[in-house]
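Human: I would love a firmer grasp of how sequence relates to backbone shape in proteins. Take your time, and here it is.
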Amino acid sequence: MISGPIGEEAGRQPTQRELSPVGDAGSAEDQRAALGKARRLDDQCGRAVGIFLIAQRETMQWRAVHGIGDESEARVRGLRDDGRASGTGATALVYGYWSDLDTGGYEWIYRPDAVAGIIPTNHGQSCVFVGGTPDRVASGGKQGKQGKQGMDAIHELLAAAAPDVAARVHAATAPRGVRTFRGRPGLVRRPRGDGWALVGDAGYWKDPISSHGLTAALRDAELLARAINDSDPDDRFDALADYQETRDRLSEQLFDVVDTIAGYRWTQDEIPRLLLQISSAMADEVETLAALDAVAVP
């Protein structure tokens, strides 16, 4: 078990159909871009799959797409799915928000047949999650058996991964329901083209067991914004090539090790080494971002 201030707070999907205007961040000379409205993209079932944003700079239009939710395909008009790398591992997850749970902070549990964790959130609630292979989670947490999904998987996998955590969760106030993510392999896409760019999950999807999705989205948005704002009007394509090079360099190591963990291709003795590799990849990312020049805010 790993406890302490690691990982990210689990977020909830937005429900609003139209996001707020980005607003004016300064004059054209200071910002060199006027941002329009960000519009949520839905799939055929009405689920959020991305955000569509047009940033106008002189006569050019840039379409930046960030995938959100568990169906974060780059389903943007005119964009071709150009996968550059595909993973093979996928962790199915079940999660919910418990109240009055006895926990001292973030808790991560890794077992060869199950993973689990506790993430303190707001209003006295903690996100409790369990994970396993998609087949196991689909059978309610029971190997080779058919069963109810959701709460059954929470209790079965928690009991297998960490009986002491399972007892604390059982003593807490359970939610009315839980959510299930059925798992999907990682994918790295080419993040740029003629007048468009991808950030976050839309261009670089990795298993959520990494707890790094929001960080990657904010990282990509920062790198992309700098690439566009610092580029010459006649040299924008090369600027986006620099963005792609930096994104790929910061993503490759983390993508590979997360795919190994999500595919359960490890033993109890091997998982500490894999987690250290994740920590090393994140440290490289922090060093790169910390070295960026400060940007004045109007």
Notes: The chain is about 30% helix and 25% strand. The longest strand covers residues 48-57. Confidence is low (pLDDT under 50) at residues 3-37, 54-62, 68-81, 143-148. The helical segments are 28-31, 134-138, 151-161, 163-171, 213-229, 236-262, 271-290.
